Amino acid sequence: MRQVAPVTQESNKARTAVIIPTYNAAPWWERLYAGICRQSLQADRIILIDSSSQDGTEELARMARFDVLRIAQRDFNHGRTRQLAMEYAGKAEIVVYITQDAILATDSVVRNLLATFADPQVGLAYGRQLARPEARDIETYARFSTALRNRRCAPLNAAAGEA
Fold first, then answer.
1. What is the pLDDT of residues 33-42, one digit of tens each?
2. DSSP state of 36
3. Is 12 helix (H, G, I), strand (E, B) or coil?
4. Residues 31 and 110 in one domain
5. Residue 119 CB burial class (10 angstroms; 0-12, 13-18, ≥19)
6. Residues 88 and 12 sit within 8 Å (Cβ to Cβ)
């Protein structure tokens, strides 16, 4: 059960798209929406791909004028769902994925991510994700251990002897 609106000529021109996979995201909506709105650089499109929420998430996104793509809960898959949303984004040159419980800590998160693409050798960028203050232990651990792993990664240009 996929409700996919056609990509219009206008939406197909979007240079940047933010994609947010959601399921019953209403408890986090206020912080998520506020963080997106206060960004100093706004994306051309914000696409919410919702797994048939029952808490009003889809309605909140539509009121915010986000594009909404609804899928059946049973069709959710981390990779496939994000790929579907990317296809829905049309020809966006840059796609930013965020989670429904992401707290955009500053007004320059999107600007900082996009600035890395000024270098033509950059094909991927990511930002550090901190756990919410009320996060359970497993969420905190996942974000902490990821940060530790990333510190051990060598710079991409290290292989070229430029580290």
1. 999 999 999 9
2. H
3. helix
4. yes
5. exposed
6. no
Cα 128 to Cα 130: distance, rounded to the nearest angstrom? 6
The residue to which tokens 């550090």 are assigned: 128
Question: Quick count: other Cβ atoms within 10 Å of Cβ 146?
Answer: 13
Range of the structural domain that residue 141 is part of: 125-155
Q: Are residues 72 and 99 in the same domain?
A: yes
Phi/psi at 49 (5° precision): -105, 110
pLDDT in tens, 105-149: 889 988 998 889 889 999 888 887 777 777 777 776 666 555 444
The reply to whether 68 and 138 lie within a common domain is no
Instruction: Mark whether 108 and 148 lie in a shared domain.
Output: no
Q: How many CB atoms lie within 10 A of CB 132?
A: 14
7-35: pLDDT as tens digits: 344 444 458 999 999 999 999 999 999 99
- Is the overall model pTM greater than 0.70, yes or no? yes
User: 88 has which bridge partners?
Assistant: none
Q: Rounded CA gap, 29 and 41, in Å?
A: 20
How far is C-alpha 89 from the chain's CA centre?
12
